[in-house]
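Checklist before submission:
- one chain only
- standard amino acids only
- sequence pasted in full

Submission:
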Amino acid sequence: MIHHRIFLLILLITGAGSGALQAQEDEPFRITHQPYLQALTDSSVSIVWTTNRPGIAWVELAPDDSSHFYQRERPKFFAAAYGIKKTGTVHQVDLKNLEPGTKYRYRVYSTEVIRHQWVEVDYGRTVATGVYRAQPLEFTTPGPATRTQFAMINDIHGRNEVMNNLLDQADLPELDFVVFNGDMANSLLSEDQVFEDYMETAIERFASEKPMYYARGNHETRGPFAIEFPKYFPTPTGELYYMLYHGESAIIVLDCGEDKPDSDIEYGGITDMDFYRSQQAEWLKKAVQEEKFRNARYKIAICHMPPYGGWHGEQEVMDKFVPVLNEAGVQIYLAAHFHRHDTREADDAIHFPVIVNSNNDVLKVDLTEEEGSFLILDQEGKEVYRTQIRPLR
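Returned file contents:
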C-alpha cells in the first residue's frame, strides 16, 4: 500500500513537471525583458535583453535623422563571440566605434534556435522591438561636455514603490545617467526575481534609453543566482569595478564585496571577498594613473559600503581602497549600506568627505564648470542635505 502511494505521488510530480514544461514549449517565443543600456562610453555601449527560450540576437542601428527606420535596411550587429553567433536567453550586443556626442536609434531582434545539430540549425520565430507604429528606441553617446548630471539610489531591496517615488524626484529627463549603488534586491535567487524586484521598473522608467551604472552591494553577492550578476550588468572593464568618464568628470565605481569575514556562517563557505578586494585595489592603483583621470575636473568615488562603521568589509574598504583614493586626489565618496543618511568630513585618515545616502532618499549630482552640487531629496521632494565641492581646475 505504501509503495502504491509513493508510485502515485511520483506520477503526480512528474506529470505536473511535464505539464509545466509543455506549457513553456507551447508559449510563443518572445522577448521577456525589454532591452536596457549598460556600459555606455563615448564610443561604445552594451544592449541587454532576454527571451523565454534560446535564440540568436542582433541589434539594428540607425542614425538620428529624418528617415523612417524602414526607409532602408539597417546594419546588423550580432551577439557573437569568436566569429560565432551566441545562442542563449540573455542577449548582449556590444556596439563599438560609435561617434561621441551622437544620438542613435536602435531595434533589437531575437530568432529562436529550435535545434542545432552538427552544421544544421533549425530556426523558429523571430521577435523584435517595434518601429512600425512605435518610435524606435534611442540613446546618445557622451561627448565633450562641461556639465554632468546624475542621480543615485540605493538599498531598494525590491521596494518598487519607493524606487518609483525616488525616480519621480530625480528629474530623469535632465539626467545623463542613473547610478544604482547596491542592494537593489535582498538576494539574487533567479532572473525573474532580479527583474521583478527593480529592473522592470528601471526599464519602464528610463533604462532602455538612458544609461544605468551599477555599483554592486553586499546583498547582490548572496543567493545561488549571484554568480550570474555580471551577465546582466556588463561594464566597460568586464569587471564589477570600473572607471566612468563623462565630460570632464571621472567617477570610480568600486565593488565593496561582503560586509562580514569570508569565514562567517552566513556565507556557507562560498565567498572569497578578501582576495577579490585585493585584486581590485591593484586595478585601482593603475586606473588612477590614467591621464584622463589625472586631468579630470571632478574626481568622485562611488562604493556601496562607506570606509567606516567597524565591520570587516568596511575596514577592508578603508585599508585597501582609501589609501589609493587619498593619493589620487578623490574629492568626495558616495556610499549607501546604512539605510540612513550619514556624512563624514575629510580628516587625516580619509582625505575626502563621505556622503551616505539613505534607502529612502535620492542623491542628485550636478557638476558644472563653477561647482559640484550634491542634493539629497526624500520621496516627497523635501531637501534632506546639500553640499558643494569646487572643481580641481
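Reviewer check: Residues 6-11 have pLDDT under 50 and may be disordered.
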